Amino acid sequence: MRGRGEGMESCMNQNFGGVKPKHSSEEALRRWRQLCGVVKNPKRRFRFTANLSTRSEAAAMKKSNQVCSCVTLPSEYCVPEEVKAAGFQICPDELGSIVEGHDVKKLKIHGGVDGIADKLSTSIDNGLIASEDKMMCRQEIYGINKFTESPVRSFWVFLWEALQDTTLIILAVCAFVSLIVGVSAEGWPKGSHDGVGIAASILLVVFVTATSDYRQSLQFKDLDNEKKKISVQVTRDGFRQKISIYDILPGDIVHLAIGDQVPADGLFISGFSLLIDESSLTGESEPVVVNSDNPFILSGTKVRDGSCKMLVTTVGMRTQWGKLMETLSEGGDDETPLQVKLNGVATIIGKIGLFFAVVTFAVLAEGLITHKIQDGLYLSWSIDDALELLDYFAIAVTIVVVAVPEGLPLAVTLSLAFAMKKMMNDKALVRHLAACETMGSATSICSDKTGTLTTNYMTVVKACICGNINEASDHEEVRNFTQIPDNAIKILLESIFNNTSGEVALNQDRKYEILGTPTETALLEFGLSLGGDFQAVRQESNLVKVEPFNSVKKRMGVVLQIPGGGYRAHCKGASEIILDACSNVLDPAGSVVPLDEVTVGHLKSTIDTFADEALRTLCLAYMEIDKSFSADEQIPVDGYTCIGIVGIKDPVRPGVKESVALCRSAGITVRMVTGDNINTAKTIARECGILTDDGVAIEGPDFRKKSLEEMNQLIPKLQVLFL
């Protein structure tokens, strides 16, 4: 049995092993389709697999997107009457041609980004006026931000597809012949029993199959809608707020940051160090620098680095991404390796079933013919003989029906979809079916710390400012911070409120709301608790340059032009990295003094103490810059003055410890991979039950220095990895 199993596995890998969970080659996909020689109902078996012809069309479209066709039009532009009547001065086709064509000349003709904003009746600062009638009017002219989806197929379509099963068609022919011959020989209704029985069986199979497929298609539709629930931050009526991507309209001011997917075509208003990944649209892997000279941002691309404000110009099916998605939606998803192998199994079993069906029919028919020869009646054939031969044929067809597991690949697809639905109920959104299949055979789980093992609700609970450690009581009021000198408080607030990707804004209820990542929110909340005024501090200086935080640099920096004409740089990030970049520190009196070994030791000890208490640490620093600084220059990387270190509490998510224990009991090893301080990571890992007494916690650079043999020995015990 073991040898047969290994032989089957070898056959599967040889013939069907070329298909990967993601990004399989078209040649591999076509090859395994051709190998599925015995397919009773191709429409049903390959319902949830890729349509290779439409996928080729999408690839051709991507290639065409790499070439920007800029067509210079006359300076005179005639606004359509319906657009004028609606209160706008530019039509959607004109907007689309500007952004998709990257037409700088045409953009200048319309007055640049400011001119486009005026013609769209919007404000770059305050966004759209969100009155219902104006929004409806805007939707009628420019459309909505939704892509055309293939309509939900009716039950009758699934019924028709189920009827196209080859074996069912053969059985239907048998039923018809049996009915005609039976009624002719034995009359009605006695001669109709066999034919009607076969027909009833066919109808039962067809209706059960169609009902099951129809219900599952509705579940797939609901699942697809869940995956598309994405929110973005926009400015409307002067307030920054979150809305669904489906509610975005031309004229909206959208705020984008690292990792965001661009929800619509638009123009760059302002931002810093913006890199856009257009590979999903053009296939090009190199990111594109977007700035005021190249302000075009396309829907479906991703923000690789930086942040910006964008003026939305084109939405929905008018965007190039919308046209591409229309093609891809018909192309289907990649087959998972399990689906491919099960199709292979179905094909092999189908061939075996067909072989035995032919053999069975031949044996039965041979018995009948032999009997006729023995009786000397081989030239005399009656209706009864014909009916008996037809019964033998029906038996052979029945063997094929039973033996060929046509619904097996589909059943697995639906079970994966069910697993996806169950995970969604557990607040775990899975976007690809292959992920459920992969997780089913997982023996090791590598988890991030922040937001996965922890709640991602952060608050500053401790801070070491000017050498003094202070605590926040009950996460609400700050205690003992009166010891900090006024000049140190001022520079601290300047650092917190300017060197941030977050914002303190008025919401529609006229209350202040903190927007941003959990870490930024915690720092801004800390700054407000010190009595700071976000807007007032921001207005005191001019932001000249921003280098956003990313996981490689582990720091964020800004340069401010301060009153008097000087420049000041602020940076924050991983405590060890920022502290190494400091040569000075603020003493208890708020004065700048050189950073000696004793003070460095005290600050490093503070970092370790905070980390041992499971606090995430950040170091804040600043430096004065020469007046000749230019925005084209890089922000300095050393020579800073340390303002202080803050400890941020991010509690462990309820139920994590029990989940880790459950995984361990199932033989699954859970590991933590994080970019936080190693001591913080170890403390959280122990609290979660990940780090055990015989487990190993190691930093990434140390791990990468080890030989392959040393890595293989270490990996079974590795439980915490600090990148």
UniProtKB/TrEMBL annotation:
Transmembrane segments annotated in the record for this chain: 168-189, 195-214, 348-369, 389-419
EC number of this enzyme: 7.2.2.10
Keyword Translocase part of the UniProt annotation: yes
Residue ranges of every copy of the Calcium-transporting P-type ATPase N-terminal autoinhibitory domain listed in the record: 13-57
Domain P-type ATPase A: start-end pairs: 229-327
Keywords associated with the record: ATP-binding, Calcium, Calcium transport, Calmodulin-binding, Copper, Copper transport, Ion transport, Magnesium, Membrane, Metal-binding, Nucleotide-binding, Translocase, Transmembrane, Transmembrane helix, Transport
This protein's record includes keyword Transport: yes
Membrane topology according to the record: Multi-pass membrane protein
Coiled-coil residue spans: none
Localization, UniProt: Endomembrane system; Membrane
Cellular component aspect of the GO annotation: endomembrane system; plasma membrane
Summary of the function given for this chain in its UniProt record: Catalyzes the hydrolysis of ATP coupled with the transport of calcium.
Similarity comment: family membership: Belongs to the cation transport ATPase (P-type) (TC 3.A.3) family. Type IIB subfamily.
The protein's name in its UniProt record: Calcium-transporting ATPase
